[in-house]
């Protein structure tokens, strides 16, 4: 007699289809938010606002994204990733619509800052990867995490020119309305992942019987997890500083804005390659060693870029090489979380790691501006980024790549 778990799955419930669905969610999630920079000038000019208002809302959404990620992870671990992704899509859509119609800075911060931040967190690649981690066999998880991370960069590559084209063709307000509608595609793409909430879902074997509170408490008492959290802070610091402050750094060194934009775009393109490669490497070798060397390589690349004269050639070399290392930390970091703690509370425990990343992002952006205003140069922050990369290299080497004792299956 057949049981629901033993019946043949529909084509859209196969592992391949679920991975594709997760990647499509990541493409839309990252893609929509990657267009926001194109709205800085038209929204500021339309309302007569200084650019600080728009920038502050974007800073808030990044910080809220980080703080809301553990909450999203807890809900995904308790109620299923698909439901959280769908709820996030609705919140994301409302936030983008508020950006289009709000008339006051406060409400713009509520929409573009708070709601978009929550929506991005609830529909982000971390929730997607948690879903994939429960579906994909252990030997292929790191590869799946790399695919999901690369998809986010592909979303940036696809949506960034689309956002600019929509503004040119229809105006900024209509462009935001269209992008808000596109964010609801997440609901469609997340639908196959509902299998995790049905009796047809494959059971996750080898997981310890712990409550969420016990899992969180045990993780924060685990030395390797704390090292991972501290290292991911560095990732956020380095990336956010480069995204926000490298364009003006290039401009003041004689690089045209058009070439700087092209060079920055290469980061997203080459990140697709780097993230995918990191996923494959993490599936074949220990994860903490290549992760440590990614940070060390970043430090070497930044040091070389600062020491050499800034030119079109050195700029291209920097953005291409950094692109290869850009989010290649993510599949390896997520992979380490699953090795140490399994998949049952993966979204929650990775969420706390990601908070550290976003705190680093906030500090990298803020210090870049603060120290530039004080000293008239970005050199201090560039070298701080180098030093932090060496720190991250050191703290990742002692990580023990094994299941935490309390998380061992009974």
List keywords for this structure.
410 residues, mainly alpha
Annotation field: number of helices: 17
Shape: globular
Beta-strand portion reads under 5%
- Determine the fraction of residues in helical runs and give it as a percent range: over 70%
Q: What would the average pLDDT be, to the nearest integer?
A: 85
Characterize the main sheet. none
Number of strands: 0
Class computed from helices, strands and strand pairing: mainly alpha
**SSE series:** HHHHHHHHHHHHHHHHH
Low-confidence stretches: 1-7, 198-203
* Radius of gyration, CA atoms, in whole angstroms: 21 Å
N- to C-terminal separation? 30 Å
Q: How does the SSE layout of this entry go?
A:
Elements lengths: L14 H20 L5 H8 L3 H29 L1 H21 L3 H18 L2 H11 L2 H33 L1 H12 L1 H6 L21 H9 L2 H30 L4 H28 L3 H20 L4 H14 L3 H13 L4 H30 L3 H18 L14
Verbal overview:
The chain has 410 residues and is mainly alpha-helical. The protein is 78% helix and 0% strand. It contains 17 helices and no strands. It has helices at 15-34, 40-47, 51-79, 81-101, 105-122, 125-135, 138-170, 172-183, 185-190, 212-220, 223-252, 257-284, 288-307, 312-325, 329-341, 346-375, 379-396. Helix 4 (81-101) packs antiparallel against helix 8 (172-183). It is globular and about 60 Å long.
């Amino acid at each position: 007699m057949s049981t629901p778990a033993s019946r043949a799955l529909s084509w859209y419930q196969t592992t391949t289809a679920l991975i594709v669905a997760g990647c499509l969610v990541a493409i839309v999630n990252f893609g929509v938010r990657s267009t926001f920079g194109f709205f800085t000038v038209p929204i500021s000019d339309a309302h007569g606002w200084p650019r600080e208002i728009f920038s502050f809302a974007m800073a808030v959404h990044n910080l809220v994204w980080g703080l809301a990620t553990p909450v999203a992870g807890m809900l995904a671990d308790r109620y299923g990733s698909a439901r959280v992704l769908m709820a996030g899509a609705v919140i994301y859509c409302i936030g983008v619509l508020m950006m289009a119609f709000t008339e006051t800075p406060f409400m713009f911060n509520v929409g573009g800052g708070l709601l978009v931040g929550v929506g991005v967190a609830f529909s982000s690649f971390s929730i997607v990867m948690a879903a994939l981690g429960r579906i994909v066999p252990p030997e292929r998880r790191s590869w799946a995490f790399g695919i999901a991370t690369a998809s986010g960069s592909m979303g940036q590559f696809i949506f960034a020119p689309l956002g600019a084209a929509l503004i040119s063709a229809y105006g900024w307000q209509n462009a935001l309305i269209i992008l808000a509608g596109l964010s609801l595609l997440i609901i469609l793409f997340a639908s196959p992942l509902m299998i995790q909430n049905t009796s047809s879902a494959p059971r996750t074997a080898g997981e310890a019987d712990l409550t969420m509170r016990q899992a969180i408490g045990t993780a924060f008492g685990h030395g390797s997890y704390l090292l991972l959290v501290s290292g991911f802070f560095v990732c956020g610091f380095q990336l956010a500083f480069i995204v926000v402050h490298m364009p003006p750094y290039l401009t003041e060194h004689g690089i045209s804005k058009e070439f700087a934009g092209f060079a920055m775009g290469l980061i997203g393109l080459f990140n697709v390659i780097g993230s995918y490669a990191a996923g494959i490497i993490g599936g074949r070798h220990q994860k903490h060693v290549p992760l440590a060397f990614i940070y060390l390589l970043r430090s070497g690349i930044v040091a070389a870029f600062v020491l050499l004269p800034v030119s079109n050639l050195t700029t291209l070399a920097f953005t291409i090489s950094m692109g290869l290392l850009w989010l290649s930390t993510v599949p390896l970091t997520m992979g380490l979380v699953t090795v140490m703690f399994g998949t049952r509370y993966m979204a929650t425990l990775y969420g706390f790691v990601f908070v550290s990343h976003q705190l680093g992002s906030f500090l990298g952006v803020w210090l870049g501006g603060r120290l530039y205003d004080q000293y008239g140069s970005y050199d201090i922050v560039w070298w701080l980024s180098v030093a932090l990369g060496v720190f991250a290299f050191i703290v990742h080497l002692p990580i023990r790549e094994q299941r935490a004792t309390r998380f061992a299956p009974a």
